[in-house]
Amino acid sequence: MPRRAAVWLRSAPWRRACSSRSGSSPVAEAASAARQPAVGVFALATAAIFAPTCRMSGKTKGKTKFVSRHRAPVGAPPGTLVHDERASPTGIRLTIISNDHVEEIAEASLAAIEKAMKSGKRLWVDVTGLADLQLLGAIGALFSIEELALEDIANTSQRPKVDTYEAHALIVVHMFDGKSVDSKEQFAILFDGRHVVTFQERPGDCLEPVRKRLRQPAGRIRTRGAAYFVYAILDTILDAYFPMLETIGDELEDLEDKITKDPHPRDVGRLHQLKRELLVIKRALWPAREMLSAMSREELGLIPSEVGYFLRDTYDHAIQLIDIVETYRELATGLLDLYLSSVSTKMNEVMKVLTIISTIFIPLSFLAGIWGMNFAPDSTWNMPELRWRYGYPVALTIMVVIAVGLLYLFRRKRWL
What we know:
The chain is built from 14 helices and 7 strands. The protein is an alpha+beta fold and 416 residues long. It folds into 3 domains: 3-59; 91-340, Beta Polymerase, domain 2 (2-Layer Sandwich), CATH 3.30.460; 349-412, Methane Monooxygenase Hydroxylase, Chain G, domain 1 (Up-down Bundle). A 7-stranded mixed β-sheet has the order 2-1-3-7-6-5-4, with helices on both faces. The longest helix has 67 residues, at 305-371. The chain is rod-shaped. It holds the Pfam family CorA.
C-alpha cells in the first residue's frame, strides 16, 4: 500500500462522515481525496466499502434503549451526581396549594420556593430537566433530601421503586406521553407528608389533567393532603399507558390483516419493533406493580389508610396494563408464526404449480426426444412414422391428449 494511501486511511474521511452531524457522504469526501497523488482509486474504493456501514449505523439512532448508559463512574462514592450532556436545561414550576386557592409560578426561583415554604401552604415543586446539578443540590438542601435520593433522581437509569427515608419518601416511575414509547422518561416523586417535589427529564408530560383538577375550586385533590396528591400523579401516569397500548393493539390488528392477505417482509420488521416497544413497557410496569402493592398495603408510613384505598385501584390498573402487554406480546409472536406459515404456504403453492407443469411435460419431452432422434429413415426399423403423411398432426394430438389426461387426473385427485 502506498504510504500516502495509508496516511489517508488513518485520517479516514469515512470515519468523520460516520460521526459528523452534517451527514456528509464518505464517497463525496473521498472524491476530493482521490485527487491527491498515490491515493486515487484506493480512496474511492475504501469509501465505497464503508459507506453502507455508515448508513446502517445511522439507522440505529433514535431507538429506545433497554439499558441507560448514564451512570456514576465505577467506584464513585454514594451520593455522587453525574452530569448528563443530553439532559435538558433545568427549570422549576411552583404550585402553591391551599383549600381555597391555587397559585402557579411558571419560572420559580429558589427564593420564591423558600418564601412559599414559610407561608405554611402545601407546595408542588415540579423540576423539569436535570442538567443543572448545582440547582438540584440546592433544592435537595432546601427540602432536606438525602444524598442517595438525589443520586437516584439524577441517575435516570433507575427501575420503578419506592424508597423511604427518615423524613421523606422517594418514588421512581417511568412516564410516557401516551403517544409513543420513545417518549419514555424517568419521573421521580419526593414527598414528606406536606410538600411534593417532582423531577422529570424534560419539559412536557401527561400531568395536565392533574393541573386542571388543582385549578378547580371544589376538589378533594386540594384538601386530601400530599399523599392523595401523589396518588393522583401516579394514577395519571399509569392512565397514559392505555392510549399508547391501544395504538399498538390497532397496529397489530392491521398487521394481522396484511399478513393474512398479502405477507410482506417489511411486516416482520414492524412486528419486531412492536415487540421491542412492548418489552420496554413491560420493564416499566412490572416493578411499578410491586411498588404500588407495597404502597397500597400501607407499608409506607407517609401513606394514610384512606389513600391506600385509592392506591389499590391504581394497582389494579397496573395489573390490567400488564395483562394487555402480555396479550399483545403473544399476539405479536403469533403473527410472526402466521407470517412464516403464510410464506411457507405461498411457497408450497408455487412449488405445486411448478411440479404439475414439470409432470405434464415429462411424457411430452420423452416423446419429443424419441421422435427427434436423427437416425437414417431408410431402415424400416428407424421410426417409420417419420414417413407418415399425417405423422406431425398425430404426434401433436397424442401430446395434447396426454396433457389433458394428466390435468384431468390431477383435478380428480384434488391436486389442482
